Amino acid sequence: MESEIYNGYSVWGHAILQQEDILQPERYAASGTITVGGKLIEASGILGYFDTGEEAQLAGRDWARAWVDAHG
């Protein structure tokens, strides 16, 4: 989970490991969260599935920045 400050909001990107079968390659579900002063402002559902945790976290932060741009 990685965060950054964006226009006064803390925006978080999450990578949630998805492995249904041990023989399948690992995949990561992406989600995003927006907080201010430790208070939850908004959270996404699953945004998509990615091959790496970094890609998933980036997708979550991208979603959060777009939410701030639209609502902040």
List the SSEs and their pairings.
Elements: E1 2-6, E2 9-18, E3 27-36, E4 39-43, E5 48-50, H1 53-71
Antiparallel strand pairs: 1-2, 2-3, 3-4, 3-5
Note down, in words, how this protein is organized:
This is Transposase. This protein has 72 residues and is an alpha+beta fold. It has one helix at residues 53-71; strands at residues 2-6, 9-18, 27-36, 39-43, 48-50. 26% of the residues are buried.
Number of domains: 1
Instruction: Compute the number of strand runs.
Output: 5
Largest sheet: 5 strands, antiparallel
CATH C-level category = Alpha Beta
CATH topology: Double Stranded RNA Binding Domain
The overall pLDDT, averaged over residues, is 93
What series of H and E elements makes up the topology?
Answer: EEEEEH
Q: What does the overall shape look like? A: elongated
Structural class: alpha+beta
**What is the CATH architecture descriptor?**
2-Layer Sandwich
Evaluate the radius of gyration. 13 Å
| Helix-residue proportion | 25-40%
Percentage of residues in strands? over 45%
Distance between the termini: 22 Å
Query: How many DSSP H or I helices?
Result: 1
Low-confidence stretches: none
Protein name: Transposase
What descriptive keywords fit this protein?
elongated; alpha+beta; five-stranded antiparallel sheet; Transposase; Double Stranded RNA Binding Domain; 72 residues; 26% helix
Quick summary of this structure?
Helix content is 26%, strand content 46%. It is α+β, with helices and mostly antiparallel strands and 72 residues long.
